[in-house]
Design goal:
The protein is an alpha+beta fold. The chain has one domain: START domain (Alpha-D-Glucose-1,6-Bisphosphate, Chain A, domain 4), CATH 3.30.530. The strands form two sheets. Strands 3, 4, 5, 6, 7, 8, 9, 10, 11 and 12 form a ten-stranded mixed beta sheet that branches. Strands 1-2 form a two-stranded antiparallel ribbon. β6 and β7 form a beta hairpin. α3 crosses α4. It starts with a strand and ends with a strand. The N terminus is likely disordered.
Amino acid sequence: MAVAGRSIQPVGTVRRVTRWCVDVVVTVLRYAVQRIPTYRRDRQQDPGEPPDFERDLPGDQATLQRPIDGIGPLYHRSYWIFVTDETLNGEELISYILQEPNQVTPTEMASFETMDGEPARDLQVGDELIVRLPGPWDGPVRVIERTPTSFRFATLRGHMEAGEIEFRTSTDARGFLEFRIESWARSGDPLFHLLYGRFVIGREMQQHMWAQFCRRVAAVSGGVRMSNPSSTTRRFGSNP
């Protein structure tokens, strides 16, 4: 598959199948043994407005996989965690993640690579990555926004979802540092739509992955974690 004028190097069949089997087994075992309690707050707070999905984004517009290209409901998902007495402030924390995202990623479930197969480092707007995942998908994304306290990915053709995801920090009225992951996306293909929409395991694996990510970011901040991660999931109108 070509993305923005570059070819994604195919993973050898044996290596891909082996990685898929091993990672799926490890992921399921970790989920069963080390499941992270997550507060689900689906009836709390206004979901806010989604981004303008038709706006121009950095890079080749033709290779983007926008929500209109997906199928099924549009899901708005948020995952967040609070810390206090942190040694890295919000800007420093975002810089740390962008410098080498695999430092805070549960890499048995997902890992960030460049299109050349190297670990992702020092992410900038316009950079394109492959998120290696257990299962039949790899998730190509592009960095479409970077601010001192946030960054955002858009999905590219071939991703299992169609939409955007943002990672950001802020400080609340109590002075606590919040790290939040927020996505707006539809399923990118019928198989993922089936696994996510019809079977609990797809949703639970995704929840587990981002809960781990939040916990690791909280640990990296050097602060005291105020609670386990929290999450919301809201479902909006469906594409055929």
